[in-house]
Amino acid sequence: MDIVPYLLLATLEGLVQASVLMLTALGLSLVFGVMRVVNVSHGEFFMLGAVAAWVCANLIPGPPYVPFIAALLIAPVFVGALAWAADWAILKRINYNPEATIVSTIGLMYIIQQMTLITFGPDAQAVDAPFYYTVRFPWFGYSGYKFFIIAVAFVLVGGLLYLLRHSKVGLFMRATQFDKETAQNFGIPVTKVYSGVFAVGAMLAAIGGVLVVPSQQAHYLMGHDPLLLSFVVVIVGGLGSIPGTIAAAILIGMSDGLLSVFFSPTLAKIFSTLLVALVLVFRPQGLFGKAGR
Amino acid sequence: MNTIGTKKNLTLPRRSLLKGMAAAGTVLAAPGIIGRAVAQSGDVIKLGAPFHRTGIGAAYGRWYERTALAAVKLINEQGGINGLPVELIIEDDGTDPKRGVEAVEKFSAEHKVDAIFGHLFSHVSAASAPRAGELKMPYFLCSEAHSLAAGAFNRYVFQPSISDVKSQVSSMAPWITDNLGKKVTMIYPDYAFGYDHRDNLRAAVEAQGGEIVGDIAIPPTETSYTRYLPRIPLNTEVIYHVLVGPGVLTFVKELGEHLGSQRPEIFGFIDSLEAVSFDIPQLAYLEGTHFWEAMPRYAQPNQTSFDKFYREKVGVDANGASVDDPKSVATFSHMFSVWETLFAMKKAMEMADYKGPKQKIAMLEAMESITGFEESNEFPQGRKIFNGKMHQSFAQQNISKVVDGKLKVVHTVSPEDTLYPDEADYTKMSF
I want to staple B258 with a disulfide (CB 3.0 to 4.6 A). Which of B164, B205, B229, B361 is the partner? Predict the structure, then answer.
C-alpha cells in the first residue's frame, strides 16, 4: 500500500481506539480525581457493559439496532447500580483508605470476572452491530460502525465536560475533588457525591464496552487490556485531570493506531508503556496534572 | 449424609453447619473427589483430562469434554478396558501453561490417575509434557504442535490421533501453490503453534517454487485485527490464515471488510473458524475460499458409517453443530482426537493386559509397537500410520471449499503423503 491509504487507515484505527479509551479512562480518572480511589476493577465494568449488550441482543427481539440502543441505556444503568452497591458495601466501609481500596477493588475484579464466567460462560460471543455499512475507500474497506463509535464517544465526552463545568452536580464534584472537608462544610453531600462519581465512572466504562462489542466480541477476560490502557492514559494525562485524560487518550490512541499499522501492535504497546515510565520519571504529576497540593 | 437440622445436632448447630458447608464446598469445588471416594485404585482405570474449560481455548475445551464423555461412556458400555471400568476425572487448566502443569501434578499426586490425555493448546502442552515425564505419567496429547515429533518431549508423551502441523502443512502446500497461487501471505498466532505453521509453510512453499511475500504474527489474545491487515502486500495471490482464541470470528469478519470484493485467494486452517458458524452475513465473502479440515465438519456425500456413528454418539448433526442447539458449532476438526486417543490408549492397555500402574511400562511399550489404526468406529477420522519412534500419528488431510455456505471436501491427502523423515527416536530414551 502507498503511504496515503496507510496513513488513513492508521488514523481511523487510532481514532476508534482513542474514543473508546477516552470513555474508559475518563471514568477511571474521575473516580481517582474526586475520590482518590484507584479502581482496579474498572476494566470489569467495561466487560460487563459488553456482556450486557450481548444479553440485550439475545433477549430483545427486533432488528439489531433495537437491542443495541436498549443496551446503550440499560448497560450503564445496570453497571452503575452495581458500582453504586459496591461503593456502599465495600468502599464506604473501609473509609476510602487508599491501600485498602486498591486491594478491595482487586477482589471486586475477580468476583465480577468469575461471576461472569459462571453465568455468561467462557466463550466469546458476537453481537450484531446496529447497522452494517462498509465504507469502501479505493484501497480498503472500513466498517461504518467504527465511525459511529467515534461520534458517540465524542458526543458523550463533550456532554460530560459540559456537565462538569456548567451544572450544579459538576460544581459539587469539582468542589469535592478540590477539598473534601471544605466542601462538606459548605453543605455538599460528599458521601453522595462519592457514590455518584463511582457509579458514573463505571457507567462510562460500560458504555465503552457496549460500543466496542459489535466490532469485537464479548468475553469474560476482555476487561484486562482496557484497564491497562486506561491506567496508561490516566498516568500520562495526570491523575484526576479531565482535560489531561482526554488529551492523553487521543495521544495514546493515535500513536497506538499509527505505530500498530506502520510497525507492529507490539511496538505500540512498548511505546505506550515507555511513555508511562518517562512521564513518571520526568513529570510524575502527568503531562497536564498540577504539581502536588 | 449431613445431618443439619436433625435433633441430635441441635446442641451444636454452628459446628454442624460449618461441617455441612465444608462438605458442600468440597463437593462443589472438586468433582474429582467424589469419584475417588467411590473407586479404590486397582478396580478402575482412572484417566485424567486437563481440558481448556475456561480461558482462550474454552470453545475447544467444551467440545473436548463432550467428546471424552461420549467415548468413555461407550468404552464402559462395551465392558471397559480389560474388564475394568474407566473413570474420567476432568480438571480445568484455564488454557494456561502454569495451571496445565498444576493439573498434571494434581492428577499424579492426588487423583493418582493411570494416564493423562487431552491437552490441546501448544503453550500449555509445552509446559505440561516435561512435567508429566518427570512424574513418569503417561501423557497423551490431543494437540497439533510439532514439538513431540521433533523430539522435544520424553518417552511418556504420545500423540496417537491428530497429525502434527509439519505433516499437515507440508502435505497441503503443494496443492496451495499448484491451485491457488505462489505468492503467499501468512497470518498466524504469535506463539509455538503459529511458529510451526510459519516455519513449515515457508519451507514447503519455497520447495514448490513459491514465495512468502507477507508474514503477519498476531498475539492469540488479540481482540482487534484491522490494524494488522494493511501488512498484506498487494501482490499477494493467496492469504494463508490460521488463528486461534476467542477473537477468531472478529478476525474473519474484519478480513472480509478489509479486502472487499477484490480479494486474493484465501486458504485458511479451519482453526480460524472452529466453533463458529458460517451462517453469518459478514462471512459471505468466504464463498469459494478453501479450508484445511482434519475431519470434515459437514457430513459429505460419501460419509462413512464410522463418521455417522461418531456424530451420533457425541451428539453432533450433519452440519457439525450440536444436536440440541444448531448455533453451538463443534470444534470438529480437533475433537475427534480425544475420541481416537481414548481408543488408542484402550488398545495399548489391552495389548499390555493393563490392570494398574504395575503394567505402565508394558503399556507404553505396547503403544510404541503399534504401527497404525484402521478406519473404524474407534477411528472415525480415518486410517492412521503410527510412528512408534516419534510417538506421532499420521492421518489423512482434507481441503474443503466453501460452496453455498458449507464446506465441501475437494481434495484429500492420504496418510502416506503426509509422512516426513524421522526426527526423533523416543524408544532410545529410558523410562
Answer: B229
pLDDT by residue (tens digit) across B263-294?
899 999 998 899 988 888 788 889 999 999 99
State how far the Cα of B104 lies from the Cα of A139, in Å rounded to an integer. Answer: 50
- The pLDDT value given to residue B1: 39
| Dihedral sign, Cα of residue A49, residue A52, residue A57, residue A63 | negative
In chain A, the residue whose alpha carbon lies closest to the alpha carbon of B229 is A261
**CATH class (in words) of the domain with range B165-303+311-327+396-418:** alpha beta
Report the CATH number of the B13-163+336-394 domain: 3.40.50.2300
- Enumerate chain B positions whose Cβ falls within 8 A of a Cβ in A: 53-56, 58-59, 61-62, 219, 221-224, 226-230, 234, 246-247, 249-250, 254, 257-260, 275, 280-282
Nearest-angstrom CA–CA distance, B221 and B368: 37
Cβ–Cβ gap B58/A10 under 8 Å: no
**Dihedral Cα B208, B213, B219, B222, nearest 10 deg:** -120
Please state, in angstroms and rounded to a whole number, the distance separating the CA atoms of residues B187 and B212.
Answer: 11
Containing H/E element for A237?
helix A224-237
Q: How far apart are the first and last CA of chain B?
A: 44
ipTM of the complex: 0.79
> What b/e string do you get for A65-82 counting C-beta neighbours within 10 Å, with b at 16 or more?
eebbebbbebbbebbbeb
Q: Give me the pLDDT at residue B27, please.
A: 47
- Helix, strand and coil in chain B, % to nearest 5: 45, 20, 35
**Cell numbers linked to A63:** 432488528
Name residue B90's beta-bridge partners.
B49
Pairwise pLDDT comparison (A45 vs B15), residue with the higher score: A45
**Chain B CB within 8 Å of residue A4 CB:** no
Is the CB of residue A9 less than 8 Å away from at least one CB of chain B? yes
**Pairing status of strand B45-51 against strand B115-119:** parallel
Tens digits of residue pLDDT in A85-111: 999 999 999 999 989 999 999 999 999
Instruction: For residue range B56-73, list pLDDT tens digits in order.
Output: 899 999 999 999 999 999
Q: Please determine, for residue B343, whether its predicted confidence score (pLDDT) is greater than 70.
A: yes
CB B275 within 8 A of CB B60: yes
Average predicted confidence (pLDDT) for chain A: 89
